[in-house]
Every structure is written in structure tokens, then in C-alpha cells.
Design a protein that fits this description.
about 400 residues, alpha/beta, Rossmann fold, EC 3.1.1.-
Length: about 400
């Protein structure tokens, strides 16, 4: 009987995935050629790009702008390697990509945003759109110009109809989630007055904590990112005037200054942060954490306790978002990273729930002011709806 149920479940899963693939048409790329004249270019000097699935029906004047994630490069060598990939050059980007999750055009899978203009801005600068160095080293031809890409792409979208937006929503995951935090207020400033404008950060709330060896690995890494890309002048001055610029790359030091309504969707046990901030490979030479980092169900009791400590640090850092009712929180206790762009975690039959609510429902209710949503899950392993994805282990998998 159990075997029969398993076969039936697998059949339904395969059928659902086929239907999703069929209904999620690929969206063609748009190259912003005019941006080159403004010096707004990818790491290799190629023009920036985005994908745009046009709105229809009642959503024709609504715009959802999503920023792609993909980590950061913190030195010339890594940025040079990155410039030969889709994360550093529009020459290497796919000509079309599938839109799922918050970007889906299928009403059943994305009821609040399916008919909006949905845009995915490609990420090709390596510093969450903060860098701006005028000089270009002829030996590498690297361009650190992410801060110029941001307004250039938005201006292109404004010229194509976003100037008439009634609703506008900036979202992003991972490094794109960090970008949505850092650029939330500037997005609001670029959108015509009168529109409802809000932001969403998915898995972008990276925290500054010590790793298991006692070192601040991530703080040093961000320091190198900021120095390499010349990011300091493009980080919030309200922060950089008080503390070191690299510390202003951490949301906990800037989130309370955001004036535009924003919702934070994050796993309290963010798998990327666990693997790269709490337990980077360099501090685990004997591989004691190898299986645990890959699969939370294989963690020892002591390792779980360490991860519970990380959760408490994360929740403490999250307090810096402030207590404004305009801010939303969906903090589940899953071992995951990025949940709004994947259909299975955004809205599906077995999507994660918090307070009996899917991420899609929580975000939609919050955006449309149907009800506020500020919920934090109980500690692992209390939530049986979590997927707790098993990952292929890499150090800095997004870099």
C-alpha cells in the first residue's frame, strides 16, 4: 500500500512539473544598448539586460521588478573569472528564461501578480549594483559600474511604460535581495508619485556574525567587495557617516533607515549563510560539518545547538528593521535559501507554511494592504511543512 501511494505521489509530482513547464513560457532577453554610452555596463563592458513579460488585463499598469541573485566577487581575479560567465557579461546570458514563482504568469500559481508586467533584471556587476569605478584597467578590461546599471535599466523601463505605473514592486533574491534593500528607496524615488510602491527582500538579510572559529569571515569578505568595486559612495550615507562602509553592506545596519514599505522573506536557518558565514569550509578542515551543511537532518545535537545560536543572532539582527507596521516579515524555520522565485516554495500544494499561510498569500496580502504580516516561526524542527532542501555542497556556491 505504501509503495502504491509513493508511485501515485511521484506521478502527480511529475505531472505538476510538466504542467508548470508548459504554462511558464520562456521570456526573451532585452539588451539595454543605450546604457553603454552612460558607462552602465557589466564587468566585461557589455551592456546590461533584463527579461520582460508584459502585463495584461487589469495588471497592464502594474510593474514587478525582480533583481537576479548570484553572490559577489571580492577581488580582481574572481571578478575576471566572473566576467566570462552570465554573472559578469550579457554575452553569456541565456536568450530566454522561464518565469516561475512570483514571476509566473499562471494565475493559480501566482494569483496576485500573474498579470503584471514582470521584469527580471540580470545581475552582472558582482556587487549588488553598488560599485562605480571610473578607471578601467586595460590589462583586465574590468568595469566596476553596477551603480550605473541600476538607474539605466529603470530609466529604460520607465520609457517603455513604467512611467504610468499604478503599482510597482521591487523584489530580489539572495544578492538580489540585498540589492532590493539597498535600492528600495531609490526605486521609490524613480517611480512617478501617485503609484503604490513597495519592496521585497528574499534571502537577502545577510548578517554579520562570527564563524565557528571566532573569525568574522563575512565582514572581511564584504570589506574586499566594497574596496574592489568602489561601493562606499553608493551605500547609504546615513550609515557610512557613522560606521565603516563595509558594515553598511549588512542589512542590519541600514534596514531601519528604509522609508519605503518592505517585506523580508527569509529562512531563519538560511542554508547559504550557514554554509558560508557560520561554517565556511576554511574553518572546517576535517569536514566535521560536511554532511550537516549539506543536509540539516544529518547534523549532530551539538551542531543543531550551534545553528540554533545562529538563528538567535539572525533574529537579533532582524530587530534592526524597526517596528513599523509598513514592514513585513515572513521568517520560517526552514533550511533553505531563496523561496519566492521557486514555484514549490512560493505557491504549490506542499509549499512551506507560516501561521497556516503560504509565502505567496502573505506577500500578496501585505502588498495590497489586506492584512499586515509579521510572523517569525518557532525553532527547528517545529515546522513540518519545511522542505529543508538537500544541497550540492560548494564553498560560496553563488560567487
Amino acid at each position: 500500500m505504501a509503495g502504491t501511494r509513493l508511485i501515485q505521489w511521484l506521478f502527480l509530482l511529475v505531472w505538476a512539473l510538466v504542467m508548470l513547464k508548459t504554462e511558464s513560457a520562456n521570456v526573451s532577453i532585452t539588451i539595454v544598448e543605450d546604457a553603454v554610452a552612460k558607462g552602465a555596463v557589466c564587468l566585461d563592458g557589455s551592456p546590461p539586460a533584463y527579461h520582460w513579460d508584459k502585463g495584461f488585463g487589469a495588471g497592464i499598469n502594474n510593474w514587478l521588478v525582480n533583481i537576479e541573485g548570484g553572490g559577489w566577487c571580492n577581488n580582481v581575479t574572481l571578478c575576471l573569472n566572473r566576467s566570462e560567465t552570465r554573472l559578469g557579461s550579457s554575452k553569456h546570458m541565456d536568450k530566454a528564461v522561464a518565469f516561475t514563482g512570483i514571476l509566473s504568469r499562471v494565475q493559480n500559481y501566482n494569483p496576485d501578480f500573474y498579470n503584471w508586467n514582470r521584469i527580471r533584471i540580470r545581475y552582472c556587476d558582482g556587487a549588488s549594483f553598488t560599485g562605480d569605478v571610473e578607471a578601467v584597467d586595460p590589462a583586465t578590461n574590468l568595469h566596476f559600474r553596477g551603480a550605473r546599471i541600476w538607474p539605466a535599466v529603470i530609466e529604460d523601463l520607465l520609457s517603455k511604460g513604467m512611467k504610468d505605473a499604478k503599482n510597482a514592486f521591487l523584489s530580489g533574491s539572495s544578492a538580489g535581495g540585498l540589492a532590493s534593500i539597498l535600492h528600495c528607496d531609490s526605486f521609490r524615488a524613480l517611480i512617478p508619485s501617485g503609484a503604490k510602491v513597495k519592496c521585497l527582500s528574499d534571502a537577502g538579510y545577510f548578517i554579520n556574525v562570527k564563524d565557528i572559529s571566532g573569525a568574522r569571515h563575512i565582514e572581511e569578505f564584504y570589506s574586499q567587495v566594497v574596496a574592489t568595486h568602489g561601493s562606499a559612495k553608493n551605500l547609504p550615507s546615513s550609515c557610512t557617516s557613522k560606521i565603516k562602509p563595509e558594515l553598511c553592506f549588512f542589512p542590519q545596519n541600514v534596514a531601519h533607515e528604509i522609508k519605503t514599505p518592505i517585506i523580508f522573506v527569509n529562512a531563519a536557518y538560511d542554508s547559504w549563510q550557514i554554509k558560508n558565514i557560520l561554517v565556511p569550509t576554511i574553518v572546517d578542515p576535517h569536514g566535521t560539518w560536511h554532511n550537516c551543511r549539506r543536509n540539516i537532518k544529518k547534523c549532530s545535537d551539538d551542531q543543531i545547538q550551534t545553528m540554533q545560536g545562529f538563528r538567535l543572532d539572525f533574529l537579533k539582527a532582524l530587530e534592526n528593521t524597526g517596528n513599523s507596521s509598513s514592514k513585513g516579515l515572513f521568517i520560517d524555520s526552514c533550511y533553505d535559501h531563496c523561496q519566492t522565485e521557486l514555484q514549490e516554495t512560493w505557491l504549490f500544494d506542499d509549499s512551506p507554511l507560516l501561521a497556516k499561510t503560504t509565502i505567496a498569500k502573505a506577500v500578496g496580502d501585505w502588498y495590497y494592504d489586506r492584512r499586515p504580516f509579521q510572523k517569525i516561526d518557532c525553532p527547528y524542527p517545529c515546522n513540518p511543512t519545511c522542505h529543508n532542501l538537500v544541497t550540492v555542497l560548494q564553498e560560496h556556491p553563488e560567487l
